[in-house]
# Entry
Amino acid sequence: MEDLAVVKRVIVQNVAPDGVAVLNAADPMSAKMAAACPGSVIFFASDRLHPVMSTHRAQGRRVVYIDGGRLVAAQDTVEQRIDLANIPLTRNGTIGFQVENAMAAVAAAWP
# Structure
């Protein structure tokens, strides 16, 4: 796993200064990569109260999480919500890894 993290970190280290890395806040190895990113970071995790998520949002930065059957993209006090029922590959939020993929995709597409 550490070897894979090294490869992924190379990608994060090469994000343009005006670019964005999308990182899983619930994965300690991924979360640590934020320090190596020259651009900005959007964290995602199912738990909005995860310490990495809470800290990142409190600093006015972007996060994506799940709240009551909805995917939430948030920055400061602004939130955009998408019902997981409208993301078919998640099967109404019952397929966990697909929910994570959807969170990452929303973060990556965030303008």
User: Anything to note?
Assistant: The CA atoms of residues 90 and 96 lie 7 Å apart.
